[in-house]
Write a structure and sequence with these properties.
By secondary structure, the protein is of the alpha+beta class. It folds into four domains: 100 residues, Rossmann fold (3-Layer(aba) Sandwich), CATH 3.40.50; 70 residues, ATP-grasp fold, A domain (Dna Ligase, domain 1, 2-Layer Sandwich); 242 residues, ATP-grasp fold, B domain (D-amino Acid Aminotransferase, Chain A, domain 1); 45 residues. The chain is 38% helix and 23% strand. The strands form six sheets. It has an eight-stranded antiparallel β-sheet. Helix 16 crosses helix 17. The radius of gyration is 24 Å and the shape is globular. The structure holds ligand MV4. The site of ligand MV4 has 13 residues, from strand 9 and strand 10. Ligand MV4 binds next to strand 9 and strand 10.
């Protein structure tokens, strides 16, 4: 087993990997940019090295520099986390050339799945259903027009190099096709330097369900069930759960088998995720793409399977066989994760950087917080604004929702705006509670949501503050005494009135 691992990442995922290493008695090396000198991952690691200025292109994306540090610090392997260099096949080759181990799949598997058209061809070859559509780049408008008619509108134009919804366009009919094609190609060229675009038939009211796969270097490929990630905003996942609320053992086995076929077809090694679109109408499912990294939302799978995916990643690249077989994998209970972002839900989720002046993380049964910050930490504008992933576990979905609702009320982050108030509302939303999670959830949610429904906690605080103010002004009691009796007291009523009349 490795004695020392370098973590080529920052934030919560760097902390997550360091925790696994510590449990395995492996020493850790962190790297950090100038603005991260004081970050949690730097504090947690055994050693830490500065790799440059704040912009990722000058720090966390500098592969050669990171490899140099791995060598000089005598680390034997590099864990890339997610994002940054995690799906960069050229970096993986450089790591190998330097005599180090990359904690992830071989570069060939990464490349095979890196392009969506190539991934679709491999899935078809492996006998896995894909969304009806093409697998070669469109030559131009005329071919697009013919192909669209063949598959039938509405269709999706997708960039082969795409990700995060970039270069993706829904086209309802032929009148929209020409400009949609130009936009999709333009976006693809600007974002990926590759304007290859292909066509898929649009799946009606799809759900996004993905299967966690795991492979070792001995030819064993298994799946660890599904995660449902249908609640997305601008193609960014915000809530994930395992298992899916459409939870059927048959569907899981079928999708799991397909996911394993894809992994086997590319000689996969380590943790991977095979994404599917599932029709909410007839539960038919279609391969979408494969992500060749550990995903942000891996904790919900860990909670329902009991398997530590990071520990397993490290074991398999060290050459050990998987520590479990397919028969050993069983899903127990239900897990839900909310991604807590430094964003203001009242201002269309604008980033909200700044200093965290107060942080209180919930406690009690069935709770897991994968954080990358601490009280007093600064949330920078340079990186993804996700500050923590908060997950709960319950025996069933109902218990998990109850637990999440309770825990979100305990969660306090002050100094910056966060998505906590948004999640508190979602946990009370009947459509979410019923598990009707097709892709329109957030837009539908915004319509269902009553105007001016403030954060329930902010509302309580306003009432208490008003009550304290009122009681002080009246000289009735001292403020502390008032606060203990506020919820049911006449001061609460007065405070509520004061708050409603804007007298605060
Ligand atoms: C689709 C689709 C409908 N039909 N493909 C792909 C990337 C992901 N971010 C959204 N993707 C979609 N691909 C076809 N052929 C609808 C979406 C989609 C979506 C899918 C699942 C969950 C949320 C979604 C939100 C917008 C679009």
């Amino acid at each position: 087993m490795f004695k020392k691992i370098l973590i080529a990442n920052r934030g919560e995922i760097a902390c997550r990997v360091i925790r696994a290493c510590r449990e395995m008695k492996i020493a850790t090396v962190a790297v950090y940019s100038d603005v991260d000198a004081d970050a949690l991952h730097v504090r947690m690691a055994d050693e830490a090295y500065n790799i440059g200025p704040a912009p990722s292109s000058e720090s966390y994306l500098r592969g050669e520099k990171i490899i140099d540090i791995a060598n000089t610090s005598r680390a034997e392997a590099i864990h890339p986390g997610y994002g940054f260099l995690s799906e960069n096949a050229a970096f993986v080759r450089d790591v190998h050339v330097a005599g180090l181990t990359f904690i992830g799949p071989p570069p060939e598997a990464m490349e095979a799945m890196g392009g969506k058209m190539s991934a679709r061809r491999i899935a078809i070859e492996a006998g896995v259903p894909v969304v009806p559509g093409t697998t070669e780049r469109l030559s131009g408008f005329d071919e697009a027009k013919e192909t669209a008619v063949k598959f039938g509108y509405p269709i999706m134009l997708k960039a082969s190099a795409g990700g995060g919804g970039k270069g993706m366009r829904l086209v309802m009919d032929e009148s929209e096709l020409r400009s949609a094609l130009e936009t999709a190609q333009g976006e693809a060229r600007a974002s990926f330097g590759d304007d290859a675009v292909y066509i898929e038939k649009a799946v009606q009211r799809p759900r996004h369900i993905e299967i966690q796969v795991f492979s070792d270097t001995h030819g064993n490929h298994v799946h660890l069930g599904e995660r449902e990630c249908s609640i997305q905003r601008r193609h960014q996942k915000v809530i994930e759960e395992a298992p899916s609320p459409i939870n059927s053992a048959d569907l899981r086995a079928e999708m799991g088998e397909c996911a394993v076929k894809v992994a086997r077809a590319v000689n996969y090694v380590g943790a991977g995720t095979v994404e599917f679109l599932v029709s909410d109408v007839d539960r038919s499912f279609y391969f979408l793409e494969m992500n060749t990294r550990l995903q942000v939302e891996h904790p919900v799978t860990e909670l329902v399977t009991g398997i530590d995916l990071v520990r397993e990643q490290i074991r398999v690249v060290a050459g050990q066989p998987l520590s479990f077989t397919q028969q050993d994998v069983s899903l127990t209970g239900h897990a839900i994760e909310c991604r807590i972002y430094a964003e203001d839900p009242e201002q269309n989720f604008m980033p909200s950087p700044g200093r965290i002046s107060r942080l209180r993380i919930p406690q009690g049964p069935g709770i897991r917080d994968d954080g990358g910050v601490f009280e007093g930490a600064d949330v920078s504008i340079y990186y993804d604004p996700m500050i923590s992933k908060f997950a709960v576990y319950g025996r069933d979905r109902r218990e998990a929702i109850d637990r999440m609702r309770r825990a979100l009320m305990e969660y306090r982050i002050e100094g910056i705006k966060t998505t906590l108030p948004f999640f508190r509302e979602v946990m009370e939303d009947e459509v979410f509670i019923e598990g009707r999670l097709d892709t329109g959830f957030i837009s539908g949610f915004n319509e269902r949501r009553k105007p001016n429904v403030a954060d329930p906690i902010a509302h309580d605080i306003a009432i208490i503050a008003a009550a304290l103010q009122y009681s002080k002004r009246q000289g009735l009691v001292d403020a502390a005494a008032a606060s203990t009796s506020v919820p049911n007291s006449k001061w609460a009523a007065a405070g509520r009135e004061a708050a409603l009349n804007n007298k605060l």
